[in-house]
Design a protein that fits this description.
Elements lengths: L1 H18 L7 H23 L10 E2 L2 E2 L8 E2 L2 E2 L18 H25 L6 H10 L3 H30 L3 H4 L4 E2 L3 H14 L4 H21 L2 H24 L1 H5 L3 H6 L3 H32 L3 H6 L6 E2 L13 H7 L3 H7 L4 H6 L5 H7 L4 H7 L21 H19 L1
Antiparallel strand pairs: 1-2, 3-4, 5-6
Length: 423
């Protein structure tokens, strides 16, 4: 899917270069095209390829209703079974608490110094991509830019990278996709890094790619801490909206002070100016960044997701054994029979002899036999299917997140960014 997005981007760029005269020169249209490049292929892939080949979950087992299934491998001590869901449920738009949203605002302010540090570092060898567009942005209507940059753009990007790509990577380490293999691996850290890397490369320039990678990591942590994509969407919207407001404020205030637009001032910054700004913001970021991580931990506790958030950082593989029952695969029949009462045990639970029961006007033994549990043969008929038998030569599954199309897409992105840097 990411390779398709990159190829569509190259196609649109080629069309604008050779046939751009057919379209009006509008910044809003360019923003719509950039978000359409992301969202249209993603929706197509979801509708066409997001098909979970899973068996339907039985509602009862041995006459007992099963609890609803979601999340990890166990619910109330019972092995979980995967549930079927629509293609858009991967986005995980769940409700969050108001207190969580307030802490997300605080976390957004706390990560801004780190973003400034990374932005300043890249300005030593490349131009500020946002500052280069600031003149065009402030010359456009403020409500339109606020909607495009502060609301619509963040929603599309979060849906694609944190809602679809990241959760697809995380799903590779869940029980539902590893139930028939010997080894279970938690790929949480790999999924965080790789999805954030793709989010940075999507910007197609080194300046934004560096700090977008850092922002992507924090956004993923927010999603895991809050258990909802709305957490990262709200953080991304608030961050971008603040940048848009600052652009228009700087245009109206700082322009009157310096006598020129802010983007022109940024273009004349010397190396000494960058070093001075870097040293100041580096100290601030060293203080605010750990606090931002503590805020994310608090959000996980506030939403009751401490265990799920801690599980994100587990890297050790676990071998499936008796202490870890397999979902969708019940215990072998022999173990089921061990848990079933034998006929002799049934007789131990049968009330006293018929003569004593007659004194108390109790049912006859024939009636008691009708209420007795079914015979072992009937129990075996209700026993679920046999578990998957593993052979000694069968290799465990290796959940590789890298693929040939993904590597091709990364190489194309780096080549495009390098070409733009040198030209």
């Amino acid at each position: 899917m990411f390779l398709t997005i990159i190829l569509v981007h190259f196609g649109v760029v080629a069309f604008l270069i050779f046939g751009g005269g057919l379209l009006p020169d509008s910044l809003i249209l360019n923003f719509l095209l950039s978000q359409g490049i992301l969202i249209v292929p993603t929706i197509i892939f979801l509708l066409v390829f997001e098909r979970r080949e899973r068996q339907p979950v039985p509602q009862t087992m041995m006459g007992m209703p099963q609890p609803p299934i979601s999340g990890g491998p166990f619910v109330s001590g019972m092995p979980q079974m995967p549930r079927t869901s629509g293609p858009f449920e991967a986005a995980a738009f769940h409700k969050v608490k108001v207190s969580t949203l307030l802490m997300i605002i605080l976390c957004t302010f706390l990560i801004m110094p780190l973003v400034t540090v990374l932005n300043t570092l890249t300005m030593f060898f490349t131009d500020n991509a946002v500052a280069a567009l600031e003149g065009d942005i402030v010359s456009t209507s403020f409500p339109a830019m606020l909607f495009m940059i502060g609301i619509f753009g963040p929603f599309c990007e979060e849906f694609v990278f944190r809602g679809v790509i990241y959760r697809s990577y995380r799903r590779c380490g869940e029980w539902g996709d590893n139930a028939c293999y010997k080894k279970l691996r938690n790929n949480g850290v790999s999924a965080v890094i790789l999805s954030s890397l793709l989010f940075g490369l999507m910007h197609m320039n080194f300046n934004q790619a560096v700090y977008a990678f850092a922002i992507g990591v924090f956004l993923v942590l927010l999603v895991e801490a809050a258990g909802s994509l709305w957490a990262s969407v709200f953080c991304h919207m608030f961050f971008n909206s603040c940048q848009v407001v600052l652009m228009y404020v700087s245009e109206s205030i700082l322009d009157s002070v310096y006598g020129q637009a802010v983007n022109e001032t940024a273009g004349q910054l010397t190396t000494q100016d960058l070093l001075a700004a870097l040293s100041v913001y580096l100290v601030i970021a060293a203080v605010t960044t750990p606090i931002a991580f503590c805020v994310i931990v608090w959000i996980a506790k506030n939403e009751g997701r401490q265990e799920a958030f801690q599980a994100l950082f587990r890297r050790d593989g676990r071998t499936v054994g008796r202490e870890m029952p397999l979902p969708n695969v019940p215990q072998p029949p022999a173990q089921w029979n061990q848990q079933m009462p034998s006929p002799a045990q049934w007789n131990q639970h049968i009330p006293p002899q018929p003569a004593q029961w007659n004194q108390h006007i109790s049912p006859q033994p024939a009636q008691w036999n009708r209420q007795m549990p079914p015979q072992p043969a009937q129990w075996n008929q209700q026993t679920p299917p046999q578990p998957v038998q593993w052979s000694a030569s069968e290799p465990p599954r290796a959940d590789y997140l890298l693929s040939v199309p993904l590597i091709i897409a990364v190489v194309l992105c780096l080549g495009y960014m390098s070409l733009e840097l040198f030209l």
